[in-house]
């Protein structure tokens, strides 16, 4: 069996709010058929940061216990989100509750503006970001592909800006590479593409745009084999990152041989030419 | 015995008068280290769970982390 | 630094003509700026088979010596090609010379039909394949995306059929995934996509179609950093293969949340609603 | 020579703010090499509404005179824009000046948020829209592909919402059909796709999404032959609209013959089969 | 109602085998729900040439009568096809029967190589083309996207070469524009793209590649409203042709304003700046 | 009366001995101008329909144009 | 003669004291029907062009429609 | 001395009469294990290099593997 390293170390590490991550893949913990699959998929993904949601304790115990029964915050960094919030006030409330859990003061800020597309309310996101940054939170802000909004989120003090590739859970992949490249070109804080990745090549293409990382959940959780897809994503993110750093060949519409033209033998004497048939 | 009504995670619930939040968590079998308590819209620090009595009409939210993306 | 295995072993190995390969990436040896870069890139790619061309010895010693001064046939399997041949007769001649070198009786059969696109002459390729198979060669046939031709090459006894993703050296990637999927669906022998890959995501997408392997040269040799791109390609091929095996999530045009809808807190009392601004 | 009607009349007309247009193509008047070409291109496009900008009179007379020396407001409806404005206040000022010209009270509202991409400042656009609607303007608002913003512009009373296909002057075409379809699905006011169209097929694809119209300038003005491209765009918009109304066939990955399978002759007696060669 | 000419006359007409056509759209006559719809769709398409198949007369009269009861060969040129033939011999037989009908000596040569994809058997097509050309037929040969085969069909004396956009009846549109452009660039005889078009934009994009015409059947016959789609296709083909002749603007990843930068008013005195909100 | 068997469009069929192809078409109600006849794998020109008798065992194909792509 | 300085389309300019805006337009050869005047940041209706005198320090913007997208 | 002319890799070349192919390779400093010899369009097995004399007018091709895709 062949062994190698994922060589993430050949690259500068990803640094967000002063914290270093060797893996550029961040994964969610939702929608798994069972916790054991989730744990194995996270392990296979190589992710060092996972997102979690803040919800009421189920007092009837019919539903599963809290996620921290399954994840060790010492081994994987916990990034609480404000998923499901539709106002700045609501998102701020969830962020404060998350911080009160005592793990860290990071938050993946999500303020949804539309139920059908789950696209963000950018004005409310900006408002919540300002409040939370003022309260000392490390804000990683989910946003759309708009560079104007992305720049304002950076100005507001966000630790990272997280534009989507396509709507949450859609699996449509990177629909607008121009906008994502532009956001990366213009911002100084890390750009993490969040949501929309459907399969490994989507993650690879996304990283080839030069962004700092990718966050995904459904693509892994809803794959037929989540653990295998998690491993695929790990490789895909590394592949895309390395390809970006390596600098791809130019595209051409004319073919160019890979073998030398010189050094060919003298052609067969006339009269041969089997290949002329057909 | 003497009960009061509160709202717990959105549901009306009767609890013993004078019960503290810490005692409520114990009664519910919840690990205080894995739960965050919002008491009448204010976050209640863990250090103050034992010293905080529950009053009639209080609104309590007990939250924790669950799987999410 | 993080270490892991490339997990090629979790997958069935690639078997061509009874020979087993753990890596599904085959690389060319042409167009490198120097031999040392070529050797390091092949190493980084993890490829177990490399293609070489048959050319006249340069008697003036102005050009580099033979490739076997740099590659050890014990460590990497040598696949001679018939690149540059325009007739079946010519290709057969080059194949016989290659076999006379004594390494093996395999040949990557290429019969070019057009200088500008380097697209194959399918009739001449078929004719040469029949002759070489009859002479006991293991024929891996370069061809276009036509499933009719691919089926005939299989019928002719080819050990593998190698349709292109796009023209040799173009870097246009997988232009016609339908045809490639169809060829894979219809053939029993291994299908290796040969030529056209430009960057890591191209290799990943190609493998996601379910083909057995990918062969490339220019994408690595002409990258700004060939060794880094070779590593990227290694990961991309594994990622694409694993994603194919894992089974991707469905695409949807409606978003689906990753965090649970139930368990949300009671909304703020009316009058709040900061998020309503904008 | 063959003559026909463009059949725009078979379709419901486009109605914006109570005004009826038979053509669903709106064109700009900028960037033409000369006024005569502009006038002929507008004529060829069949457009019934054109956009103009508000600028200082050139007191040195070095530059061309006002556009109204070339366009007859009786024959083509003039839609003044606020191009070049970066704040709500500025845009409101330009809109008021445009209305003072006495032609109409319509305005193509543009509030730019970024100089490099010319993407809108959606918050400022929304603010300006509210002010102008309150002042009785018919506001046609240029915006990005965000459905949340589009819905708010409709709520603000805009007469039409004009999301972009891709950045102004980029010619990248319709990058995100999902978002455009979603905006059309969700809004009640007309949706006009504004900016980004590069050639006829871009306009055709855009109309096939079901939107109410397309606005373009650069694609015509910067074509090698602007008049021919204007004519092409006229046909492309009609073609896309009719195709949307006609309802396209399903896509299939398996072929389906167009000629009947029954009624074939009895095959040739065995021994024939010329086609079996190769 | 607005009237105009389709302006096909501004362009050189399409000339095949010395015969002139003003419309660059050729349509099939198969798969219509009824003959009346077929006749109206052909009328709406503006096509001057239609394809028909050769089949046994139905002696039970249960099925419809021959197509010539519905089409007047004086008004629309009849192009018989060899659809359904799998060998050169069979195709030659059908072509001869078609010519014996006495209308003309043209044939749309189709020799299928695979039932699932209906892709051509290029070797058999070439063989049949040589036989038919020798017998004085005007051969319009259906083929795949391979330029090598296309060049040989031209060498064999075909009057036109008809590569597919995608498989017959698939509606996948123009999958490989590079190959189609290359075929057009290299051949002297007319290149008609045959099969695969699914909607108007597909026809438009195809014509924008510079080919001489498009042939379709399913896209019209299977549209919800075949007559409206036929009209859409007529406009789409004209639009694509005109756009090709007009020469499109360049694509850019940076925006370029359509309105002049000079002549802006002096900005508001500091303190204003409504647009600075958000 | 006296019949012979032929193969007509792939089906066995009995027709009157001595019948010409033109007569057969008339019997079938087919317009000779819109039908092409293949007689024992040879195309039969219209001009010769009337003078061509049908013999026992003959294979006749009657074809025409139908809708196709 | 007696001049005052104003700002016209962003440039300093001297005009005769007492000149009306209508007279200025005439002097500049501009068709009042095709120009819009902003006078000290207020839009000046055409009807009032003739009755509006220009004062020292006034800021005038004369705009019209030009080609734009 | 006594020379003959042959064609070696497409170029005319004079070599000593009676020279064997093996001797020619040695003279050229080529490793026989890494070169394949085509002698008058026939492949010459390595085993026969030493026993094969070169005659006037012979056409020899000496090939090996180079980088290719």
Blueprint of the fold:
The complex is a heterooctamer, with 4 copies of chain A (278 residues) and 4 copies of chain B (69 residues).
Chain A: E1 3-5, E2 14-16, E3 19-21, E4 25-28, H1 35-45, E5 49-56, E6 77-80, H2 88-100, E7 106-109, H3 122-134, E8 138-143, H4 147-155, E9 160-163, H5 177-186, E10 192-194, H6 200-208, E11 213-216, H7 218-221, H8 226-246
Parallel strand pairs in A: 4-5, 4-11, 5-6, 7-8, 8-9, 10-11
Antiparallel strand pairs in A: 2-3
Chain B: E1 3-8, E2 11-16, H1 21-28, E3 36-39, E4 42-44, E5 59-67
Describe the structure.
The complex is a heterooctamer, with four copies of chain A (278 residues) and four copies of chain B (69 residues). By secondary structure, chain A is of the alpha/beta class. In chain A, 32% of the residues lie in helices and 17% in strands. Chain A is built from eight helices and eleven strands. In chain A, the strands form three sheets. Chain A has a five-stranded parallel sheet with strand order 6-5-4-11-10. In chain A, strands 7-8-9 form a three-stranded parallel sheet. A two-stranded antiparallel sheet of chain A has the order 2-3. In chain A, helix 2 (88-100) runs parallel beside helix 3 and helix 6 (200-208) runs parallel beside helix 8 (226-246). Chain A is globular, with a radius of gyration of 23 Å. The relative contact order of chain A is 0.14. Chain B has one helix spanning 21-28, and strands spanning 3-8, 11-16, 36-39, 42-44, 59-67. Chain B is built from one helix and five strands; from the N terminus they run E-E-H-E-E-E. Chain B is globular and about 45 Å long. Chain B is mainly beta and 69 residues long. In chain B, strands 2-1-5-3-4 form a five-stranded mixed sheet, with no helix packed on it. The chains are: A alpha/beta (278), B mainly beta (69). At the A-C interface, strand 1, strand 5, helix 2, helix 3 and helix 6 of A face strand 1, strand 5, helix 2, helix 3 and helix 6 of C.
């Amino acid at each position: 069996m062949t062994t190698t390293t994922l060589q993430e170390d050949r690259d500068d590490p990803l640094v967000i709010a002063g914290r270093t991550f060797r893996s550029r893949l961040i994964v969610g913990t939702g929608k798994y058929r069972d916790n054991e699959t989730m744990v194995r998929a996270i392990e296979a993904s190589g992710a060092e940061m996972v997102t979690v949601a803040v919800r009421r304790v189920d007092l009837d115990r019919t539903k599963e216990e809290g996620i921290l029964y399954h994840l060790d915050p010492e081994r994987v960094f916990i990034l609480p989100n404000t998923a499901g919030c539709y106002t700045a006030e609501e998102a701020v409330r969830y962020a404060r509750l998350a911080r009160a859990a005592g793990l860290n003061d990071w938050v993946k800020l999500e303020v949804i503006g539309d139920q059908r597309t789950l696209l963000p309310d950018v004005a409310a996101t900006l408002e919540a970001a300002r409040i939370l940054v003022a309260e000392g939170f490390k804000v990683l802000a989910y946003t759309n592909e708009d560079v104007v909004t992305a720049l304002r989120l950076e100005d507001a003090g966000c630790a990272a800006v997280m534009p989507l590739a396509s709507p949450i859970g859609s699996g449509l992949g990177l629909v607008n590479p121009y906008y994502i490249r532009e956001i990366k070109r213009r911002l100084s804080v890390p750009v993490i593409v969040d949501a929309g990745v459907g399969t490994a090549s989507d993650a690879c293409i996304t990283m080839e745009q030069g962004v700092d990382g990718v966050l995904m959940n459904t693509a892994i959780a809803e794959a037929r084999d989540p653990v295998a897809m998690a491993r695929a994503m790990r490789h895909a993110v590394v592949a895309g990152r390395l390809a970006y750093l390596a600098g791809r060949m130019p595209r051409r519409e004319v073919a160019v041989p890979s073998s030398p033209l010189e050094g060919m033998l003298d052609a067969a004497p006339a009269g041969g030419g089997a290949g002329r048939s057909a | 015995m003497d009960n009061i009504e509160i709202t717990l995670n959105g549901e009306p619930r009767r609890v013993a008068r004078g019960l503290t939040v810490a005692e409520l968590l114990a009664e519910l079998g919840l690990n205080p280290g894995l739960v965050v308590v919002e008491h009448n819209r204010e976050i209640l620090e863990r250090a103050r769970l034992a010293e905080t009595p529950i009053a009639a009409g209080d609104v309590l939210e007990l939250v924790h982390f669950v799987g999410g993306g």
